[in-house]
Write a structure and sequence with these properties.
Blueprint: E1 2-5, H1 7-11, H2 20-33, E2 38-44, H3 56-60, E3 71-76, H4 79-85, E4 91-99, H5 102-109, H6 113-129, E5 133-139, H7 152-164, E6 169-173, H8 181-191, E7 199-203, E8 205-206, H9 211-220, E9 225-228, E10 245-246, H10 249-256, H11 262-276
Parallel strand pairs: 1-2, 1-9, 2-3, 3-4, 4-5, 5-6, 6-7
Antiparallel strand pairs: 8-10
Helix pairs in contact: 2-11, 8-9
Length: 277
């Protein structure tokens, strides 16, 4: 079982800018906990687009990665970001949001889906030369609010094309919190057996009363990689529902490791609250 903690996703949309030192302190606490396989800690995108992440390059050098079992993941949106992230030995994974909604792909990365496929190919080459691994987030993987055509077969088609490029980790993203247990189960049941050498994860968004059924659907279909964020912060503002956020990490830990690490979990929840206040 791999749990990925996503402080980057949790705080990138906050209006108040959180200081670099506070971010460093919090991410180091996550690293020291050794509860997570990976920490999605920052991004190398335009500061104009996401000003909260403008200090990622200043943060990475201050992280105690050598003392942790966890690895670092940074989000990138193009080749420039990939080249910048690859300058840091501390970073193991580069995450790229590949939307199967044409509208969202253009809004998010200023590229069509076909152009994004070419971009992923270039990013994969850059990453391999730097001994890093690409993680593709299939955003809008369970539907979209724009009226763009969606069905499970569309998701499977694009994963087919991306896997040919040598991508070995995909995270299916419930970007706007509309995934149903049946669609979650269907996608994982059809993907996991078809690609035995590929790792599939779930980046699920939920309301406080739908989290468990979504985790159960993915896990029962064979998914063993889950993204979360403490207190369920973050998520997509286009969800049009203030209760929809990232899957709460404390819920994931309670589901997979009940009654374990309670002291650490409580300490990290308090630390996150201090970070954003």
């Amino acid at each position: 079982m791999k749990l990925i903690e996503c402080p980057r996703d949790a705080i990138q949309g906050l209006h108040q800018i959180i200081s670099t030192q506070k971010k460093i302190k919090y991410i180091n606490l996550l690293l020291e906990s050794n509860l997570f396989d990976t920490i999605d800690f920052g991004s190398f995108v335009s500061p104009k687009a996401i000003p909260q992440m403008a200090d990622t390059k200043d943060i990475v050098k201050k992280l105690n990665i050598s003392q942790s079992k966890s690895k670092l993941l940074a989000i990138i949106a193009n080749e420039r970001g990939a080249n910048e992230a690859c300058q840091f030995d501390e970073i193991a994974y580069l995450g790229y949001p590949f939307s199967i909604s044409e509208t969202f792909q253009i809004r998010n990365t200023n590229a069509t889906i076909e152009e994004s496929l070419e971009r992923v190919n270039a990013i994969q080459e850059i990453s391999q030369k730097a001994n890093k691994q690409v993680v593709i987030y299939i955003s809008m993987g369970f539907g979209n609010p724009y009226g763009d055509e969606w069905n499970a077969e569309i998701a499977l088609k694009w994963i087919d094309k991306l896997s040919i490029l040598g991508i070995k980790i995909f995270s299916l993203s419930d970007t706007v919190g509309i995934a149903q247990p049946c669609s979650i189960k269907y996608l994982f049941e059809n993907l996991i057996p078809k690609y035995p050498d590929v790792e599939f994860g779930a980046h699920l968004h939920s309301t406080p009363n739908t989290w468990k059924e979504k985790i159960e659907a993915a896990f029962s279909a064979g998914c063993t990689r889950f993204d979360g964020a403490f207190l369920g912060y973050g998520g997509c503002p286009m969800a049009d529902d203030e209760l929809v956020g990232n899957m709460a990490t404390e819920n994931l830990l309670d589901f997979f490791q009940p009654n374990q690490h309670l002291k650490k979990i409580n300490e990290l929840k308090i630390a996150f609250q201090e970070l954003i206040n």
